[in-house]
Design brief:
CATH superfamily: von Willebrand factor, type A domain
Helix content: 25-40%
Protein name: VWFA domain-containing protein
CATH class: Alpha Beta
Keywords: Signal
Number of domains: 1
Structural class: alpha/beta
Strand content: 15-25%
Radius of gyration: 21 Å
Shape: elongated
Number of strands: 8
Strand order of the largest sheet: 3-2-1-4-7-8
CATH topology: Rossmann fold
Amino acid sequence: MRSWLALMLLGMTCVTQAAERNDIPSCYHFLKQDAVRPNGSGRELVIIIDQTVKVPLSLKESVWQHVLRYVQPGDRVVLYQFSALLQDNYLKRVYDGKLEALFTDQKARNNMGMESLKKLDACLLQQKQYFSQGIGKLMAASFAADSDNVAKSEIFGSLKRIAEDLKSDPAHDKSVLLVSDMLENSDFVSFYSNNRIRAIAAEKEMAKVTEQNLIADFNGAKVYVAGAGLIDTAAKNNYRSGKIMQQLETFWQRYFEASHAELISFGAPELTVEIK
């Protein structure tokens, strides 16, 4: 017997509501129960993956598990990948999906036919599994491959563009999960010198970033970083001192504060707190 979600995918090319993108098929719409659809949670998780960084499998799995533990029915999830501007690597909004809230209004449930209620409940339960599998595959494909070697990283420019793109999202509770080594290496700013990470003076670097109009506006989002200072084991001079990492974290705290966001955790490289 096919699941209700599978039947939905067979019976629709892409159901959109009010011309809004939603990569998760709507159970309420498919089963003609739009009138009883509850409001969303108002929470949004924005996952941002830096394709210039080679992330070990254990850290990829850890990041995915963080996502699965955070996301609940009613949440919206957006996935971006970014890189230096190359032919096949550039900023993309890879995924934008809204999980639907469970149907818990007892009065409305009592007024619905038993068969319709059973189908709706089954579909909503399957929706989370559909999301988990889909986001996992897309996240895996968004990470750099072992054969990728991108020398430049446009972190500042990418974050500014993503923040602009998110302005139309109505969520009042927004969390950002950023998977990156946080080491800018562009024509604007480079955190490297002679193939090594250089000393990073937060105030001095903030002055450069501000002067070049690279401050973003994340409108009060909470930011969680995974992968900071990540070392490519094949690279030379891959040592990251505690002092350098402290300087790096201090800079990014200042940057996100200026960008109307709060840096909650700076995973170097493992994110050790839960996303909230």
